[in-house]
Amino acid sequence: MAREEESYYGKHGTPQKYDPTFKGPIYDRGCTDIICCILLLVAIVGYIAVGVVAWTQGDPRKVIYPTDSRGQFCGQAGTPNENKPFLFYFNIVKCASPLVLLEFQCPTTQICVEKCPDRYLTYLQASTVGAASEELKYYEQFCVPEFKNRKKALSAPEVLKDDLCPAMLTPSKPLARRCLPAVSSKKGVIMVGNKTTFNDGKGHERNVTELLEGAKKANVVLEARQVAMKIFEDYTVSWYWIIIGLVISMVVSLIFIVLLRFLAGIMVWVMIVLVILVLGYGIFHCYMEYAQLKGQAGSDVSLKELGFQTDLRVYLHLKQTWLAFMIILCIVEVVIILLLIFLRKRILIAIALIKEASRAIGHIMTSLLFPLCTFFLVCLCIAYWASTAVFLSTSNEAVYKVFNETECIYARTTCNPETFNTSNVTKVCPSARCLFAFYGGESTYHKYLIIFQIYNVFMFFWLANFVIALGQVTLAGAFASYYWAFKKPDDMPAFPLFSSFGRALRYHTGSLAFGSLILAIVQVIRVMLEYLDHRLKAADNKCAKFFLTCLKCCFWCLEKFIKFLNRNAYIMIAIYGTNFCTSARNAFFLLMRNIVRVAVLDKVTDFLLFLGKLLIVGSVGILAFFFFTHRIKVIQDTAPPLNYYWVPILTVVVGSYLIAHGFFSVYAMCVDTLFLCFLEDLERNDGSTEKPYFMSSNLRKLLKKTNKQQADA
Length: 713
Fold this sequence. Notes:
713 residues
């Protein structure tokens, strides 16, 4: 037996031995992983340099304002188009071309105008009345600026050939600063400007449905912007109610944590009983459905015979489906009951640990506010990443391409609008146009732009993980000070949280950078795999899709394992002050030597905390739903009118989850820290006068452990 135990410990490290000088987190420590600390500082300097370059080269106006065929912004102050906020398409019908989906640009001239046209009119009609007519003056505002200088020298066909003016105008309305056909419907008939047909300016009568088709393609991106504007309006009228909802969730979270200290045991057992009852009802419901289908035609068809069906409701009419559900639920029910029978003592230890965590948080109340600091720093990382990404994506130059309605060898090639009319392209393809396509560039800076974007994403993950790691080490050091205080709270340091924060920054910035770097690399790889998966969705290569799915699954598992390992390594760093690799190895071996306790306690505590989050989010979410949908009669007139009532509700739900997660992350870190300290305590001490246990009296009673000096007393 001794040999087996020695062999087991040899595989998973050597248990900690008694050290009379060990009284909790070591204060006499040195700097760890200095190389990673230097690397992080250099990377931050580089990140700042990338941000400065992006801010000097980028122009966010390219995202906000529509752009005409010459790359000029519509409605931008300080430009010639300052008083022309709307974008007008010369021929909206051409936007129905598949080219729109390839280049996100209509193959027709686009100009900025003061207002959208409000009538049907062709250039031939306006020009035949007279050069000084009101119709022609009205028409001129929808022509390119050069038309005013050339209109007397050119005939109507030449004007249309040179694309100086649109061939026709149709009644339009602005949508997201774009002039799109003013569509109406009477008795099921679609009309534009009270007409079902229009003159295309070339002597042909065409149906207004062609305008609609072009408008739909031109509206590929505009619909999302329109929804975004409505969402913004909802936020402007409901923001204070959202804040009230988040404050309520914060108060409920605090109350829940306070109650958890006194009712942890009851809540765990109530949760377990509810799970058993729910599974029992599921078994009963499946049996009733199975019995009800007996004798019905078609219910005896097997799942194999039916095969795969897109309408999943078909399977609910088969007896075999309900029988399978019933068998699965019975197996789960039996497994849970057996686990409760054989692991009842471990569950009691988990409850005792949760109670102990509540006491620790009660003695270090500032720990509940510390997530606000972490949240603020993470928000800074997000803001810097988002702003840098926007400036990088808008730091390109205007790129012009050849657009043509028919086949042309120069189609979609780059061109120069200033020399296009005298180039060879117009001779080969007379109807070709040189139009603004997108923002890009061929300079050295633009060639490395994608590398800057990848570096931006990588640094975001690294810094965000570093901030989270700093918070975990700080909390772990504070809670370890509580556990290893023999007389609680008398032997605790005056300011355990601030002392732990200072030690983490002064000595272990490199170790935190090391752990967060490993995690950031895995997360960037996962982002790249998601990008590849998105690009391969249209492909029919099943082998590549299968291989990519396997890679995504493997890296997801790897990320989860690294997060688990890092979390426990940070606890060991906070206690012993060792470097990252040593701390990770010691934590892993300590957990492996107590694998049964790890499996049970981790899952029980995680499920309890998840249940707490679910209760908070569910209660606040239901309250928000009834309020914003005007279902609370007492205050139904107080709720603001909304375009989408789900906008504030979803915001409150997500915000409530983040708040609850912030509070419970402190709780989870406390439980994990106390658990590792508890395992160390069992290995270091034996309850004798020389080696007394540091665990609380409740834990000692559950484990039937006693300190001899207390037993003698």
